[in-house]
Fold:
Amino acid sequence: MRGIGPKRAAALRESHIESLVDALLHLPYRYIDLRERHGITNLQLGADALLEGRLEGLSIRPRGYGNFRSASSARLVDANNRRIRVVWFNLPAYTQFPTGEPILLYGKVGSGADGTLEIVHPEVHRIASVELPPIRPVYSLPEEVPQRLFASVVSEGLTRVEALAKLKGGGTGATEIGALPLELGGDAGTQPISAALRYLHRPPADANIEHLNEGDTAAHRTLALDEMFVFQLALCRERARSRRRTGAVMAGPGLTETFKETLPFAPTIAQMRAIEEIAIDLAAPTQMNRLLIGDVGSGKTVVAFWAALRAAEAGYQTAIMAPTELLAEQHQRNFERLCGRLGLMSTLLTGRSTGNERARNLRAIERGDFAVVFGTQALIQEGVRMHKLGLAVIDEQHRFGVFDRARLIALGSQANVLLMTATPIPRSLAQTLFRNLSVSALDEMPPGRTPITTGIFSERAMADVDAIVRGEIAKGNRAYYVLPLIDGSDDEQGEGRASVIAMAKRLNGTLAGARVGMLHGRMRPAEKERAMREFRDGALDVLVSTTVVEVGIDVAEATVMVIVAADRYGMAQLHQLRGRVGRGAAPSRCCLIVSDGARGPALERMQVLARSTNGAEVAHADLRLRGPGDLFGARQTGALPLRFARFIRDWTMIETAADLAERWLERDPKLDRPASSGARAALQRILDSGFSLGDIG
Ligand code: ADP
Ligand code: MG
Structure:
């Protein structure tokens, strides 16, 4: 492309834009309405304004050394002779200012040193010279690539896609981009892809700017449906494939009966149901691929142990992988406690075991000395071989990448798979989204839990929170403080107040006498483990931590969870963090400290949490307030490869996409008809991106 040299190409590649198709799929992240011009009166400090007028009184003053450090200022004068100062810093010397001619100026209204309003570094458009679009798209781009240049790349792409569409008779599926075959698109009521792309990159004069900015137009829905169609195609094919895969047969009963009898508590009805569902899967000769979803504390671990015993009684090994050493260790200890007397041997494999000890352990695992092997990612390192792996359990599975999961499963030739997660996602949605998995849900809490009281506090009320903590410590209980930063050096405001180190220092004063420990990602693994162990065993009263405590830790004496800058987190994460307390019989509290500036949806999220401790309710509210893109954690490995679908509005669309995918596969099971070419290309793109569908969740 003209204008894109090696440097810009490299910058674009960093943003995953390598082709015209990529550029077309890189939608604007916001739109500027050039139809509605503001007068110079009634300008709002901090708001964007689009002003029409002429520049006058240009002055260019050099600042400091050299020609390139300058401050240029001028006045914008509108038709009613009202004026506002306009300022540019360090413009290149050759900059041409369109003084005197009618211009449009777009920028943020600020205030100068003297307190009067001004606009710094506005965009300037000559009204006469260019044909202004009614709505201008703004792209998120690397610094090296100007908006206008990218717009011209997109133009080229649109022209080519439209030419291609015309050649092939229009419609989605007729271009390299659309996946949905034309014959289906009509039924689904979507637009041709080329039309949707033109609408989004070059919105017409009658487009609704709010809908564009919210991603809520028919064009957005077209792209979302197309994308979900591909995703569902992949899932349908994967499900068909996994149904043909053989899995180790484990029919029981035996140990599992004794296990139920010797448990110190009665399983909940939900646990029983999940166990029944798993039993059926394990008794079948095909591979089990089951996702167990259940709120924090709902008792998923016991279900996994039951499955492990069923594997053991059939002569198979089980591997249980957890995301942290602490959790793996906790699981093994619980297993020993609950299943020890059944005469089963288990072992732990983490990064801690090294040298001879590790070698000995590996040999024993390979010999089949252990019925259950607990571990972290160390389980999938080089050199680990199982004797006869029949069941792979992955706890907090959203913490692992797809490759990690695949590697664990590959340790056995016919391993059944049980994935566990506390991601608060409604079961029906999980089933639709993950059609390649069967889903069991623990929708009930074990009895005897005292519900957690959640309160919202302002930053100024920190002393009240400390008082609550002091009271609990006096009763022999423990508290967590969770903060978003480690030492504040990465804090934009440079305050560092919201940091682990600053908080620990502060608490040493305000909680005088309490034993305060820290836990964060910059500590060495051994230090982390020690802090956690001391907290668990009661050698520490308070653990000040980053969100590393989020996952699975079970300390019954912890009764207070203080979350600082709670508005910075998503609801699912807050719910997980809160789940670290309320694990014993004593009543527990969660204190959400909200930043002073927080308002709107952020506050609403806190209020939902204060009202409800039910994960499903929290999930529903989260879907309503944010959309599940965030719920899944778009940045997490193994997250859904969906870029256009925001399920808050696309929920029913998932069903539509799934039905379309099933119908299409009936017509073209191998996807080798010409109408499937778009779908094939799109599937390939998903797979090329490193996404494996064998075990999503
Ligand atoms: P999660 O689903 O979050 O992984 P866990 O499996 O860690 O939850 O269980 C939380 C706690 O509840 C554990 O201490 C466990 O022993 C206990 N528990 C599990 N099932 C029951 C039950 N049916 N009755 C009472 N306590 C239970
Ligand atoms: Mg758990």
Q: What stands out?
A: The chain has a mean pLDDT of 82. The pocket of adenosine-5'-diphosphate (ligand 1) is lined by residues 265, 267-268, 271, 294, 296-302, 422, 446, 554 (CB under 6 Å). The longest strand covers residues 48-62. The chain has four domains: 1-31+140-202, 35-132, 255-442, 452-613.
